[in-house]
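Here is one chain, start to finish.
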Amino acid sequence: MKKPIRVGGRQPVPSRAEKADLKPGRRSRTRCKPARLSGPKSPYLQGRVVASDLRAGDRMAPTIFVGIDVSKDTLDIAVRPSALRWQLANDDAGIRDLVSRLAELSATLVVLEATGGYEHPAAAALAGAGAGVVIANPRQIRDFARATGQLAKTDAIDAGILALFAERVRPEPRALPDEARQMLEALVTRRRQVTEMLVAEKNRLGHARRPVRRGITAHIRWLERQLSDVDRDLDEAIRQSPLWRSQDDLLQSVPGGGPITSRTLLAQLPELGLLDRKEIAALVGVAPLARDSGTLRGRRTIWGGRATVRAVLYMATVAAARCNPLIRIFYQRLRAAGKPAKVALIACMRKLLTILNAMARTHTPWRPAHA
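Its structure:
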């Protein structure tokens, strides 16, 4: 056996961990502390780290998941699996910086939480740069956080939860609506807001005292003018698009459906005609959900979905139960079988949505002979 070479005239004494590593058949127990890239001295926070620094020595780029918690003034960003974290201003300069940094990281999937519209500029900029963007439901993210044991809630924690959600769940990115559809959705939303204010003011007028009746009456007249202006803008937006005009005529051909139902579906349910009947019912929130466990058979209920679409579809179903022969016969049959009125109406909503979905898929208008 050869003697070890002496360095500088003195043999170095191995440590206990090195002695264990020298024994045959023993695995090294030496642990390396991960680099803390998100600390206060992180060079990335100073804008001096690029993606090549994170991928040094790797021949294949890793999968990068990004979570962005959006507020009115700031964007909190978290990256997995590298544990990078930083904050930017939610303005044009901050969004440009965000797009450039995520381009350097070659982000695979970016998940943002819906925050009432503050997320739209960042999501549109990232989608325009070619990143896979998902705008997640806040309730789903909160349930995911509780499932992982995270009960605290801050902007930085939420960004980390969003990045973890992207890494574990990997939701499928969907194409964001174009500018024309966003404008149509904004008009439909504004019409709903004006209608709600108009109903509230009319309810207040019924028991208002004499000194305030004049102001409420003037406000009601102003809201009515606003409602007519929004309706005119909606008509113009529909007429400018041949595709929307044909779809609007198609959906309004169903007895019970009207312009409000048609335009709400066009603006807030673009998946109509692209999914099957079960998927579209679950998306709107009219699919019966089971609550069974063991020998227990619970009552089927509906839950979740798009509340605004479901509210408009409910009013259309109430009208269709009177004037649409197919829906009327179906409703009467359910009531004769002992179903409660609300249960029968929900079943009719699902049937009406199925009919509208089939018509949009096949581009076939309603024909009375079918009824």
